[in-house]
Write a structure and sequence with these properties.
Rossmann fold; 5-stranded mixed sheet; 21% strand; globular
């Protein structure tokens, strides 16, 4: 088992301490609205990707397959719309990727039978779902919700990416934390995303000095076989140009390299990037110059690229695989919430 990196020393900067105190005071003072159904929140402490969307998909799918009626609530970061919007009633996206935001659109595309709604205030999204579905709902999954103090939640899951779990242990501007590590005390459980067996226990021990008292679990990340948009699998050795606009493109590139494909070139954009026509032409030129047969991208980028490139497009899906102990723990918590 590979060990997690050591937790950085507590910051001594007066700014870091003041900023942390202000954030903690804000969290205490904000009044959270409560929805009439249980809410499971998935979030992290750091800015940037932490494996939230794959885990939200895995969680919603398991709850659905267990007979529960589920809706996902999201902010819809960088969407072109405002206010509450029902992205899906469980039958695929009702709006385009720009209106929904790339991550809600992806979840709506992959989760048959699961409603998806977005709003700046997630409680508004939840109330919209209840109204649209006539209340036929058992629980909500709140995507990227740990720092969203406006909605009360019943289970808080806090994620830490194995590649960089502590984000230097600093708040902005010297680190990437949006809340200090002491905020982990609010979490019910912590998960190492992209983690190996045993790292969940290690995570829980590392967070204990910061007030965390819950269990820790590992959630492995698995790349599924790459395929063209028509579902045809890519043959081993296919020459691909890897393209991603996600928070941790290096993880996607590593998955592509491990999929027995020949990566002849690559390009990474900022997370949630909106590809312009100029971007697309530059990508095509680079891919052709590298001798690529196919442009390989992420499931999140697919909708933003489909039909817009002259070269064939393929997708390398990535899924979350939480360890069995996590599901057992969650089943126990949900049983406690049952009326």
């Amino acid at each position: 088992m590979s060990a997690l990196p050591p937790v950085p020393a507590s910051p001594r900067s007066p700014w870091q301490r003041l900023y942390g105190a202000v954030l903690a005071r804000r969290a205490r003072r904000l009044r959270a609205r409560r929805l009439p159904r249980p809410v499971i929140s998935i979030g992290n402490l750091a800015w940037g990707g932490g494996g939230k969307t794959p885990l939200a998909v895995a969680l919603a799918a398991r709850l659905r397959d267990g007979g529960r009626r589920v809706a996902i609530l999201s902010r819809g970061y960088r969407r072109t719309t405002r206010g509450p919007l029902l992205v899906s009633r469980g039958e695929g996206p009702r709006v385009g990727v720009d209106a929904a935001g790339d991550e809600p659109y992806l979840m709506a595309s992959e989760l048959a039978g699961v409603a998806v709604a977005v709003a700046e205030r997630r409680a508004d999204a939840g109330e919209l779902v209840l109204a649209e579905l006539a209340g036929a709902l058992d629980l909500f999954v709140l995507d990227d919700g740990f720092s969203h103090a406006g909605l009360a939640r019943d289970v808080d899951l806090l994620l830490f990416p194995a590649a960089d779990p502590w984000a230097r242990g600093r708040l902005l501007p010297s680190g990437r934390l949006r809340e200090p590590l002491a905020a982990s005390a609010r979490a019910d459980a912590a998960l190492v995303t992209g983690g190996a067996p045993g790292q969940g226990d290690e995570l829980a021990r590392a967070l204990a000095p910061f007030g965390f008292r819950g269990p820790g679990f590992a959630s492995a990340t698995e790349a599924l076989p790459a395929s063209r948009l028509d579902g045809a699998p890519l043959a081993p050795g296919t020459r691909v140009f890897a393209l991603a606009a996600i928070a941790r493109p290096q993880s996607f590139l590593a998955a592509a390299a491990g999929a027995a494909l020949t990566v002849v070139g690559q390009r990474a954009f900022r997370d949630h990037w909106s590809y312009s026509e100029r971007d697309l032409r530059a990508i095509e030129r680079a891919a052709r110059a590298a001798g690529a047969e196919v442009v390989l991208t992420t499931a999140k980028d697919r909708a933003k690229l489909d039909g817009r490139l002259a070269l064939p497009l393929a997708v390398l899906p990535v899924v979350a695989r939480p360890e069995r102990a996590f599901w057992s723990w969650l089943d126990g918590r949900l049983a406690e919430l049952a009326p």
